[in-house]
Design goal:
The complex is a heterodimer. Chain A is an alpha/beta fold. In chain A, strands 12-11-10-13-14 form a five-stranded parallel β-sheet, with helices on both faces. A four-stranded parallel β-sheet of chain A has the order 3-2-4-5, with helices on both faces. In chain A, strands 7-6-8-9 form a four-stranded parallel β-sheet, with helices on both faces. In chain A, helix 13 links the parallel strand 10 and strand 11. Chain A is globular, with a radius of gyration of 23 Å. Chain A starts with 16 loop residues before the first strand and ends in a 10-residue tail after the last helix. The relative contact order of chain A is 0.12. Among the domains of chain B are: 134 residues, Nitrogenase molybdenum iron protein domain (Rossmann fold); 112 residues, Rossmann fold (3-Layer(aba) Sandwich). The longest helix of chain B is centred in the middle third of the chain and has 27 residues. Chain B starts with a helix and ends with a helix. Classes of the chains: A alpha/beta, B alpha/beta. Chains A and B meet through strand 1, helix 1, helix 2, strand 3 and helix 3 of A and helix 2, helix 3, strand 3, helix 4 and helix 5 of B. The structure holds iron/sulfur cluster (2 copies). One iron/sulfur cluster sits at the interface of chains A and B.
């Protein structure tokens, strides 16, 4: 057994994390920055971090991931990274020529205490930032929060640096899609367009990290929100932020900075959460929901109706990021499944409260943990096995050891494709989730059925 | 301005050489340029890849979570027994630890780990931040070692203190502390340690088997499928066989100085190098066992008899195709150049992240006229070279793969993500098969890179125009 070193008895740990269910802030910031058109993320620290973040994103998306690094040396760690960063800005604009450089820090530069805005000012004063080009930044100390925090921070920076209110409102809505896949961002945009609403979606990694095969390697692919669009967010009528943790800070910043009112919603995963999203959008933009969307909703509901006997009472273990898990848990409960182990690596008590609330009526004891790790999750599963698990690729070890059906969901997915192209948000995304759940559960039922119980129609 | 000129930093011009242009000189072994999209990793990464395959030790990353998350079982180093190395242990430093120091947390984490898993040893990796906040790793490790009675070894792998190669060195220093401690009783006079093989896809098992057939005992695997007890008695082996110069060369040197163990540099990639490696070891033991050469010849003959006819089939298909190589250490590039030659293919680009001057000199000597030799390259350069040379296959690592694919070029992972053993005679066959499967894939018919040949890439406008179209009402 791969994880034979995991004992069943749970002992409280205070100093040790085993098999993390989160990673560090900069990778989230890098991912968000890739959702700006023509943007080169820049990691202010030593090259290792940047190499790891790029490799991990590359493995997850199977796409080239471009980012530069300040390449700290011993010298920079003593004297600070100012010289490196100014030189980096100069080099980047002269060779790669991006529209935007989006700087995030690393543990190292944070601990040394480099002041990025001051350094960027110096670069500007030295004439290193060409006319019309931009340098933005976010502080991403990894000893606070998780990759989700870093994503939220960079998304907020887009507001801090770009949003302006000209005093004249324009007829558009800001949509902050949250820390979701490029396919999800695409799907959210599709829904918005179906409603006939003009919107700015940011960040937007679709067509950046799920770009088509063209025979070319483009340093800056076609996708991403433009700087111009980002500027206009300050004049929008309202903001809808999806995912409290990932999108909340940016939405609130827009409200404070440009007086754009915001609605902060849960991610539109599953029937109800998608209803809420669409209804909010409808209300804010004063539009009506087209029949085509109602059809999609009805189709999702139809699958649940047809197969509800398969979902009934099935226990589930979930590992992932808070925004995703809150909506997913709600969806699963709503179709009569029983999420009994729900764990995120990202710290924050609010998560535990919300999951407790959502699973209040689940007739089983439910384990919830924020800031947990996969080792603990595995111990839960050993003590109380489940019918199904959902989480990132690392769950496959547990799935194999405990012989439990498993669906890949979240970040990172290192061993399958699909997540960059097919969404899990919206009604269509809900249908895809149900298809995956049913495939996985019924496949197992077929595999384990004795000959006389092996059924054709299920 | 040609494409190439436009993508190359002035400061990097002497890190790129075209064979035939001018007398060979190479700028290397220097820090990456700030702002470059470097493909390089850090000290910690170097230490981690070297030590991680030791499967009965715990590997604790002292630092914030990321460094541990990204290195959790990403390299397929197989173990035939314990698998502690496949778990990820981190102290997950928090803000208060950064302010007040992480020593106490480290101590607790170690005690907890050792109590639960009873490992044969513990390696504690320091990351950048530990170097800054100044935790006394040595003191904590010494204390735990005293209390728990197992070796607890600090690895000084702060990321910013050099590059991957410094990490190899730190790893060697840590391992060296284990040596000379175990009993060497019963070790055969015909014995070796295998250094610098990490048992990716089970490769070290193949090599051990060759040596077994030659009548040679393998004392310690360093580090693929490695065990602490073996390393503790490694100084009892008659010879160190060192693969891939960078990673464990330092250890071989330390062992030679301290224990007088001689070493041989070898490579297990490709037919020529594999055979020559075995012969070199046989020659070393010839005095002690005159029959060893015959056994070795018989082994090579037998392997080749199986291999050659099948290689010829691949060769017929691959003859004349062009390959590009960009790997971590230059030593591997040498073997690859020869292996491609055996397949009738031509290497038109050869480079590495961390080669030394001698490495590049050697590379220069074995490559053909016109070959581009490059140190510490970046994606823009690499893609412009791939296009210019109209390459059929690119050999690289994780970050290079999607670039090759986007350009419509075949790819072979000769790094962490290899799935089939590429070492040994059978490895050459696997390599040929992998190259063949990618170069000859029908997919390239649909994405012919030739369509774009000669055309400058155009940056296109964003698809999303809502903001741009926004007009005041
Ligand atoms: S923090 Fe330092 S040790 Fe960790 S990955 Fe980054 S460069 Fe390497
Ligand atoms: S945790 Fe910090 S040091 Fe480690 S990879 Fe992340 S940013 Fe780099």
């Amino acid at each position: 057994m791969l994880l034979r070193h995991t004992p069943k008895e749970i002992a409280e740990r205070s100093a040790l994390t085993v098999n993390p269910a989160k990673t560090c802030q900069p990778i989230g910031a890098m991912y968000a920055a890739l959702g700006i058109h023509g943007c080169l993320p820049h990691s202010h620290g030593s090259q290792g971090c940047c190499a790891y973040h790029r490799s991990t994103l590359s493995r997850h998306y199977k796409e080239p991931v471009m980012a530069a690094t300040s390449s700290f040396t011993e010298g920079s760690s003593v004297f600070g990274g100012q010289a490196n960063l100014v030189q980096a800005i100069d080099n980047i604009f002269s060779v790669y020529n991006p529209e935007v450089i989006a700087i995030h820090t690393t543990c190292l530069s944070e601990t040394i205490g480099d002041d990025i805005p001051q350094i960027a000012k110096k670069a500007l004063a030295d004439g290193k930032i060409p006319e019309g080009k931009h340098v933005i930044h976010v502080n991403t100390p990894s000893y606070v929060g998780s990759h989700v925090t870093g994503f939220a921070g960079m998304t907020k920076s887009m507001v801090d640096y770009f949003a302006v209110s000209t005093g004249t409102k324009c007829n558009q809505v800001n949509i902050i899609p949250g820390y979701v896949e490029p396919s999800d961002m695409e799907e959210i945009r599709r829904i918005v367009e179906m409603l006939g609403v003009q919107a700015v979606l940011f960040p937007d990694t679709s067509r950046v990290l799920n770009s088509p095969q063209t025979g070319r390697h483009e340093m800056f692919p076609k996708g991403g929100v433009t700087v111009e669009a980002l500027k206009s967010t300050g004049d929008s009528m309202a903001t809808i932020a999806l995912g409290r943790l990932a999108s909340g800070p940016a939405a609130r910043a827009l409200d404070t900075k440009c007086k754009v009112p915001c609605e902060i919603l849960d991610l539109p995963i599953g029937l109800r959460k998608t209803d809420v999203f669409i209804d909010t959008l409808r209300r804010i933009a004063g539009v009506s929901v087209p029949e085509s969307l109602n059809v999609e909703r009805g189709q999702l509901l139809d699958i649940v109706t047809d197969m509800h006997h398969c979902f009934y009472g099935k226990t589930v273990g979930l590992v992932g990021d808070p925004d995703q898990l809150i909506s997913l848990t709600e969806f699963l409960v709503s179709i009569d499944m029983r999420p009994i182990h729900v764990l995120t690596g990202t710290p924050g008590k609010e998560f535990e409260n919300r999951i407790r609330e959502i699973t209040r009526d689940v007739p089983r004891s439910v384990n919830v943990r924020a800031g947990g790790d996969m080792f603990l999750f595995h111990q839960w599963v050993k003590n109380d096995p489940v019918d199904l698990m959902m989480g990132n690729t690392y769950l496959k070890y547990i799935a194999r050891d405990e012989d439990i059906p498993f669906i890949r969901f979240g970040f990172p997915i290192l061993d399958r494709v699909g997540h960059s192209y097919f969404p899990t948000v919206g009604y269509r995304g809900g249908m895809r989730l149900l298809e995956k759940i049913l495939d996985t559960l019924l496949e197992r039922q077929d595999r384990d059925a004795p000959e006389e119980r092996f059924e054709l129609v299920m | 301005m040609s494409l190439e000129q436009s993508v190359i930093f002035d400061e990097r011009k002497d890190q790129i050489h075209r064979k035939g242009d001018a007398p060979f000189t190479m700028g290397c072994n220097r820090e990456s340029l700030a702002g470059a999209v470097s493909q390089r990793a850090c000290v910690f990464c170097g230490s981690r890849v070297v030590l991680y395959p030791i499967a009965d030790a715990v590997h604790l990353v002292h630092g914030p979570i990321g460094c541990a998350s990204y290195t959790w079982d990403i390299r397929g180093a197989l173990s035939s027994g314990p698998a502690l190395h496949r778990l990820s242990f981190s102290t997950d430093l928090q803000e208060k630890d950064v302010i007040f120091g992480g020593e106490e947390k480290l101590y607790k984490a170690l005690v907890e780990l050792i109590d639960r898993h009873a490992p044969a040893a513990a390696f504690v990796y320091s990351t950048c931040i530990v170097g800054i906040i100044g935790d006394d790793l040595n003191a904590v490790c010494a204390r735990v070692s005293r209390e728990k009675g197992i070796p607890v070894l600090p690895v000084q792998s702060e990321g910013f203190k050099g590059n991957k190669r410094s990490g190899y060195h730190a790893a060697c220093k840590a391992m060296f502390q284990l040596m000379g401690k175990g009993s060497t009783e019963g070790i055969s006079p015909l014995s070796v340690n295998l250094l610098g093989d990490f048992n990716l896809a089970g490769e070290i098992w193949i090599i051990r088997e060759y040596f077994r057939q030659m009548g040679i005992e393998t004392v310690a695997n360093i580090t693929g499928d490695g065990r602490v007890a073996d390393i503790r008695r490694a100084h009892g082996a008659a010879l160190n066989v060192v693969q891939c110069s960078g990673a464990t060369m330092d250890l071989a040197k330390m062992m030679q100085e301290t224990f007088g163990t001689p070493f041989l540099r070898v490579s297990y990639f490709g037919v020529e190098d594999m055979a020559e490696s075995l012969y070199a070891v046989a020659r070393f033991f010839l005095q002690r066992d005159p029959a060893i050469m015959d056994r070795t010849r018989a082994l090579v003959r037998e392997e080749l008899a199986v291999l050659y006819p099948r290689l010829q089939e691949y060769r017929r298909a691959l003859e004349g195709k062009k390959a590009a190589i960009y790997v971590g250490g230059a030593f591997k590039a040498f073997s690859l150049v020869k292996a491609f030659r055996l397949l009738g293919m031509q290497v038109v680009l050869a480079g590495s992240q961390t080669g030394t001057e001698e490495d590049y000199q050697e590379l220069y000597e074995i490559t053909d006229e016109g070959t581009i030799i490059v140190d510490d390259s970046n994606p823009l350069e690499l893609s412009s070279f791939l296009k210019e040379k109209d390459v059929d296959i690119f050999v690289g690592g994780v970050k290079e793969r999607p670039i090759a694919y986007k350009l419509g070029v075949g790819f072979c992972d000769h790094n962490h993500e290899r799935k089939e053993p590429l070492e040994g005679f059978v490895g050459m066959l696997n390599f040929a098969k992998e190259v063949h499967s990618s170069v000859m894939s029908p997919v390239w018919r649909f994405v012919p890179r030739s369509i774009h040949r000669g055309k400058e890439p155009a940056f296109t406008e964003s698809l999303f125009k809502a903001g741009a179209e926004c007009r005041p009402n």
